[in-house]
Write a structure and sequence with these properties.
261 residues; 7-stranded antiparallel sheet; disordered N terminus
Length: 261
């Protein structure tokens, strides 16, 4: 029995934040048409730009991703000498926190034979903060030029082929940290470096220019991005204290004598 993954929503918003939707893309009609490139442009339901390749709206994995989704398949692109598919979402909204969620499904991607496959989420700050889904079934990150520590990287989780997963990424630019959540479980918390103090764009990418080994297929769906700022609470003014009564005795007024006439 196949249980489709639930659609993502903005459930990791923390109290004390004011948040606004930036993207809510489920690749459904009429905005996006099955078998076609995703619609590009402005608005919460559209992809900003297709940078490379030919990612197509598909229903192939609708059993797992609940309807139409975007399919990255670099195998056909290789014949055209394009070795990867990539879409871009423009951000640069001056928020102090961004909350990104999406669903992912891989097919013939995470196995020993294709362990050079890589699907990447690239956060352009403009220094690129990278989150990788690798062909050996691991999830990792790579962050260049972190102040005081150079580049940092590490393996933080794993996933299986032919199984949909739900990812959530909480990026707090004020505290310079990000938290990565897989299927409701935190798998990583660490520094997040933004040279500009913002996230300029977010890119979803399958493959690379120098590698012909990206032979798997990736389904991407239900991209939700919210921007948040801390709510400003005005402190309650301290009331002015009532004057304390004097402990000194108040002299009684002396009557003025009436002069004799």
């Amino acid at each position: 029995i196949v249980i489709p993954i639930e659609k993502t929503d903005a459930q990791i918003i923390k109290p004390g934040k004011t948040c606004s939707p930036i993207y809510n893309i489920d690749f459904s009609a009429p905005t996006h048409q099955n078998g076609q490139l995703p619609t590009t442009g402005t608005g919460t339901k559209k992809v900003s730009k297709i940078n490379f390749g030919n990612p197509l709206v598909s229903q192939q994995f609708s059993r797992y991703l609940r309807g139409q989704h975007l399919q990255f398949d670099a195998r056909q692109d290789i014949r055209r000498e394009n070795r990867y598919d990539q879409i871009k979402l423009n951000v640069d909204k001056k928020y102090s926190q961004y909350l990104l969620k999406f669903n992912l499904y891989t097919y013939k991607f995470a196995d020993a034979q294709n362990n050079r496959n890589r699907f990447s989420i690239l956060f352009d700050t403009p220094t690129i903060q990278n989150l990788y889904f690798n062909g050996n079934g691991t999830i990792s990150y790579f962050q260049p030029r972190i102040p005081g520590s150079g580049s940092i990287s590490g393996r933080i989780g794993s996933f299986k082929d032919r199984k949909a997963i739900s990812m959530a990424i909480d990026i707090n630019l004020k505290t310079k940290k990000w938290t990565i959540i897989q299927d409701g479980k935190t798998i990583h918390t660490g520094p997040f470096y933004s040279k500009s103090g913002d996230i300029k764009t977010i890119r979803f990418n399958l493959g690379s220019l120098s590698d012909r080994y990206n032979l798997g297929i990736v389904g991407l769906d239900n991209i939700v991005l919210n921007g948040c700022n801390q709510t400003i609470f005005r402190p309650i003014p301290t009331p002015i204290p009532f004057p304390k009564p004097s402990t000194k005795a108040v002299p009684r007024p002396q009557p003025t004598p009436i002069p004799n006439q």
